[in-house]
Amino acid sequence: MDAKQEVQQFLTAARGRISPEQAGVSFFAGERRVPGLRREEVGQLAGVSTAYYTKMERGDLRGVSEGVLLAVARGLQLDDAETTHLLNLGRAFNGPTRLHRSRPGRKVSPGIVQLIDTMRDVPVVAQNHLTFPVASNALGRALFHDLFPPDAEPLNHALFIFLDERARTFYPDWEENAHHTVSAMRLAAGRDPDDRGLIALVGRLATQSREFRTMWGGHTVRAHVSGSKRINHPLVGLITVSYEVLPVPASPGVSITSFLTEPATPSADAIDLLRTMIADPVQAQPDR
């Protein structure tokens, strides 16, 4: 993934989303050929020259301080996730350890598996930055039935969403889930634009899915650490769950997601039914 191109496209997209009125800047004379702010206006908001901001938007963040990046983020009214993404891109250019960065893997420590094993009353799935499930408990595998085929490795979640037709039935709100997945991948790309696994995943999806290409090209970055989603389970029907995402600092790129239901609801009954259908002992297992 070209870090320079990522910076260029991200800043251009962000600049195009905000109008002078929203930003509270004075209009520059002349016809406005494109929606959003001009480079001069972003420079004015960030307190840098037009030439300096133009250099940044062309993808060159060498020597750009975090203070300037934060000023640009404020000027473009980026949210916390977008600001973090921009700072990560800046570190990719200026960080002294870029070539020696520890890359996230596809496995987790036995301690993480044991932790998930203690969470037996709720479905739990851990996945890495490439959206591969790396650990789960039995209830998590039962909930995400199609992602965990018997006697086979679990499916990559991003590939499932965009390339497997079952995903559109499994997720009634498919488009929302697809956008969330792309946003998570964008954040991962900002942390390490050179990650070969992520480059390969993005390339495959961009080649095979028009919808992924469109969403990826939108450069939308959001952190989804909690919320709710609907699942149309093939065995127990429609389930509404709330989710909480917890990063695992000891395993870079890995996050643990737990799924909860409101007590005394049809969704809670469906989870109870899944629990009774689990034939194997309720024990977590590494998935990769």
From TrEMBL:
GO terms for molecular function: DNA binding. It comes from the Bacteria. Residues 10-83 form the HTH cro/C1-type domain. Coiled coil: none annotated. Pfam families: HTH_31, MLTR_LBD. This is Helix-turn-helix domain-containing protein. It comes from Microbacterium pygmaeum.
